[in-house]
Amino acid sequence: MNVTQFLEKNRARAESQLLEFLRIPSISTDPANAQDVSRCASWLADHLRSIGMPLVEVIPTDGHPIVYAECLNAGPNVPTVLFYGHYDVQPVDPIDLWTNPPFDPVVKEGKVFARGATDDKGQVFLHVKAIEALLAVEGRLPINMKLLIEGEEEIGSPNLGPFVRERTEMLACDAVLVSDTPMFAPGMPSIVYGLRGLAYLQIEVQGPNRDLHSGSYGGTVNNPLNALACIIAKLKDMDGRILIPGFYDSVLDVSPEEHDSLADLGYDDNRLLLDVGVVTLVGEEGYTTAERLWARPTLDVNGFLGGFTGEGAKTVLPARAMAKVSMRLVPYQTHEEIAKKAMDYILRIAPPGVKVSVQDLHGADPVLVPRDTSAIFAAVKALEETFGTKCRFTREGGSIPVVLLFDTVLKAPTVLMGFGLNNENAHSPDEHFDLNNFHIGMRAVARYYQLMAETSTR
Amino acid sequence: MNVTQFLEKNRARAESQLLEFLRIPSISTDPANAQDVSRCASWLADHLRSIGMPLVEVIPTDGHPIVYAECLNAGPNVPTVLFYGHYDVQPVDPIDLWTNPPFDPVVKEGKVFARGATDDKGQVFLHVKAIEALLAVEGRLPINMKLLIEGEEEIGSPNLGPFVRERTEMLACDAVLVSDTPMFAPGMPSIVYGLRGLAYLQIEVQGPNRDLHSGSYGGTVNNPLNALACIIAKLKDMDGRILIPGFYDSVLDVSPEEHDSLADLGYDDNRLLLDVGVVTLVGEEGYTTAERLWARPTLDVNGFLGGFTGEGAKTVLPARAMAKVSMRLVPYQTHEEIAKKAMDYILRIAPPGVKVSVQDLHGADPVLVPRDTSAIFAAVKALEETFGTKCRFTREGGSIPVVLLFDTVLKAPTVLMGFGLNNENAHSPDEHFDLNNFHIGMRAVARYYQLMAETSTR
Q1: Residue B456 has pLDDT above 80, yes or no
Q2: Residue of A315, A318, A293, A322 lying closest to A307 (CA atoms)
Q3: Who contacts B435 (Cβ-Cβ below 8 Å, separation ≥6)?
Q4: B263-278 confidence digits (pLDDT tens)
Q5: Angstroms from B437 CA to nearest CA on chain A
Q6: Residue A458: per-residue pLDDT
Q7: pLDDT value for B314
Q8: Hey, is B344 helix, strand or coil?
Q9: What pLDDT score does B458 carry?
Q10: Model confidence pLDDT, tens digit, residues A41-64
Q11: Could you tell me if A352 lies within 8 Å of chain B, comparing CB atoms?
Q12: What is the pLDDT of chain A when averaged over all its residues?
């Protein structure tokens, strides 16, 4: 019996075990679920032991535990791959919008519905099952394998950075494999090679020393809300071009090759319009929608507050105004560079009669994974063989900070090979995962490990 | 004994009665105080009876009662004056910022501290005491007198309009007298002859059908907060000039005479800077601060809300944004005309990819009282004789909607002859009223009635 046959034979068992995994409400953000998170880590560790992983540990942190496992008996001449995933899940609110209870998984039309189904328990579990098949059929893994599965991804991984920095030797590897990104579309296996970074600022504008009557003072005392609106209007022009001096200095242009490769994806603007319910898209002239989303930086106001915001009319000239503004960055912008340029510019364009201050709340650098590594070649081959179709290269508009962590601390390239779909409601009610991708994903992953064994170590 | 001597002799008694009036917590907005408001109306009516007013009524409305009194035995050849004031007061929050309890009046350094001291109980009561003196000394009033003292001014006078429209005959008069405005400065008696109007709009911007992840969609889906900031930035330029087409079409220019008259006031910009705690004033080029405040229209954002406004960083591209925007108007702008022009313009400049809607929340037309009427001449003479100094003509930046009501329904000009001061904390903690102005106000008002008797009826 080969690996594919083993997987085929064990379909029902794998699905029923997945439902068991999904039943544990491992919501990391809610202290009320701390025991459940802990229980989920134990369940996963037990399962890893049961499939024959020689070393499995549940490692406590200041928050939720990390599950670590390894199987390093493939020998020194084959590469070591570190798989990263997370067993914690998002909260379930608004709970009344779920068709079925989020922790009582049901299978309908080939999809499993539950919180965590696609993000990320379902994807984590297909790796576990692929490893199980390899161990069962071949008695060993073709490569050296480490698994790092954390319980705090949905709350920003506060304890992962210190953990990785303290255990660089334990985690040393030739490539990192992550399955936490979507495929470009159903039936189109994809590798994500770029992630945007983030510079997140908060702007505060102080006007008069107290809320004033707008009748008694309007026309002489500058209004922080008007002032802040003017500042924000000067950050980006109507064509989506960011006006902060030097903002584009470090931006890597989309090469003609990448332009063609992204164009080949056939990004469907109409589907996006329907999805978000607007009549027209906006953005920088001269770039396609996929490029605007993935390969070009942008700027969004994430929050704006000031003055009277209740029902009706109150004639206040407020003392203060606040806005949260974030910029998505692309290689080779850095969040420190961009935050500084933005802060300098905002303070420079501050209108008279108000005090403007800017705070740097959060930042992440963009990532571009080289596409010409043996880890990527193996991934492409595994996906194409398994799906029987061309593997797509895509980028993502958001950030996955752990990718940078692995890059900088472990000096290992990350392969982002996800099996979820964009419309599977990650973070929303009725989250689900296509069981077809669950099973095909196992085969692809098992094949990936076999192909990686054929590459030389670095 | 003449009127002045009577008032002098009864100083202590008048003050002690004022404290009694101030002790009643007639907060009109709080249902918990409804009984107190009612008790205050009865107290005032009883007092008016006790000073010899021949007709005194407490008239119920759908809200708080109106106190009405008249004394019409001066004969057909002298004018009839309608005094308007209000016995209700603002709430007391933030209560912990008061040095003394707001309804336990204390006299310190010649000022009485209590909620309602300057706005408007103290000013109402000086009229009552002036009438008392005239009745006591002369046995009759020199003019026909009507008093209309409402209990809902601080909640927008919802029942006054219907009342005045229903009782035009009862309220018919040659002039309306109101003491609810400040003097220009201590020792400077003033008549307010202009009030700005108001057009108050709410702008709503709808973007995508739900809050989106700013990483996954930013750069292609227009952001309602950015869009609204851009709209607002296009309403007024950096010099305070409003950019709505046709906005200034009906604006009455400040005449050279009025410019000189306002300049003569010696408006103190430094005092305003210190008062509001900013380093510089703003506004339209070519106009003085007094002109910008009183004689020029302006535009202020009164509230702005959208997206994530809590602590920290959330990367949301919000579905909606909202702003409240009001414009202060000057003669001969009308609030309907300006609201329409503003709405048309806002819809025209709406950026692509969002739906913009504008709602007209509230409006009031500006007022300019003719300065060459016998009612004003008499007021000037009374103030100058009593204060021994020149009477100032000033305008106000806010609106007093009842002035328009009297103008349009009763066809009577309003004399705005107030005795409060700008820094007496109306609507704020530690509200107070200068007792010197309380007493001098009585003499001025009594003298005004005497001088009005010498004018002919219209």
Answers
A1: no
A2: A318
A3: B15, B107, B110, B111, B112
A4: 999 999 999 999 999 9
A5: 22
A6: 45
A7: 83
A8: helix
A9: 45
A10: 999 999 999 999 999 999 999 999
A11: yes
A12: 95
CB B326 within 8 A of CB B299: yes
Search chain B and give the residue with CA nearest A212: B276
Supply the DSSP symbol for A209. Answer: S
Q: Is the pLDDT of residue B444 over 90?
A: yes
Any chain B CB within 8 A of the CB of A54?
A: no
Phi, psi (5° rounding) for residue B188? Answer: -120, 90
**Residue in the structure block whose two tokens are 């067993």:** A87
What region does B200 belong to: left with phi over 0, alpha with psi -120 to 50, or beta? beta
Distance between CA atoms of residues A392 and B273, nearest Å: 63
Do residues B433 and B119 lie in contact, with contact meaning Cβ atoms separated by under 8 Å?
A: no
A43 φ/ψ sector (left φ>0, alpha ψ -120 to 50, else beta): alpha
What is the Cα–Cα distance from A298 to A436, expressed in whole angstroms? 36
- Shortest CA distance to A134 belongs to which of A142, A124, A145? A142
The CA angle B155-B304-B283, to the nearest 5 degrees, is 85
Nearest CB to B301 within list A196, A223, A352: A223
CB B205 within 8 A of CB B322: yes
Taking the Cβ of residue A223 and every Cβ of chain B, the question of whether any pair is shorter than 8 Å is answered with: yes
| Predicted pLDDT of residue A93 | 84
Contact A390, A265 (CB under 8 A): no
Residues of B in contact with A279 (CB under 8 A): 353
Contact A354 B236 (CB under 8 A): no
pLDDT tens by residue, A254-299: 999 999 999 999 999 999 999 999 999 999 999 999 999 999 999 9
CA atoms within 13 A of residue A266's CA, in its CB half-sphere:
2
All residues of chain B having their beta carbon less than 8 Å from the beta carbon of residue A236 are 226
Tell which of A235, A273, A300, A361 to mutate to test the B interface (max B CBs under 10 Å): A300
Q: What is the DSSP letter of B89?
A: B
Q: How far is B131 from chain A (nearest CA, A)?
A: 32
Identify from A29, A206, A221, A231 which residue to disrupt to test chain B contact, counting B C-beta atoms within 10 A and taking the largest count. A221
| A298–chain B nearest CA distance, Å | 5
- Give one DSSP letter per residue of B222-254, joined into a string: --HHHHHHHHHHTTB-TTS-B-STTTTTTPPPP
Residue of B147, B118, B117 lying closest to B130 (CA atoms)? B147
Is the pLDDT confidence value at B439 over 50? yes
Rounded to an integer, what distance in angstroms lies between the CA atom of residue A289 and that of residue A248? 19
| Partner A contacted by B131 (CB < 8 A) | no
B283: left (phi over 0), alpha (psi -120 to 50) or beta: left
Structure-token pair, residue A350: 């501050």
- pLDDT (tens digit, 9 = 90+) per residue, A138-187? 999 999 999 999 999 988 899 999 999 999 999 999 999 999 999 999 99
Cβ-contact A213, B302 below 8 angstroms: no
Can you list the domains of chain A with their CATH numbers?
Answer: 3-195+367-453 (3.40.630.10), 197-251+297-364 (3.30.70.360)
Q: Cβ(A79)–Cβ(A144) under 8 Å? A: yes
Q: Do A283 and B229 touch (CB under 8 A)?
A: no
- Contact yes or no for A303 and B300 at CB 8 A: no
B317 close to A (CB below 8 A): yes
Q: Do A303 and B225 count as a contact with CB atoms less than 8 A apart?
A: yes
CB contact A225 to B (< 8 Å):
yes
Asked if B260 and A184 count as a contact pair (C-beta separation under 8 A), the reply is: no
C-beta atoms of B215 and A318 within 8 A:
no
Q: Please judge whether A314 and B303 are an interchain contact, meaning their C-beta atoms are less than 8 angstroms apart.
A: yes
Residue A456 CB partners (closer than 8 Å, separation 6+): A77, A79, A374
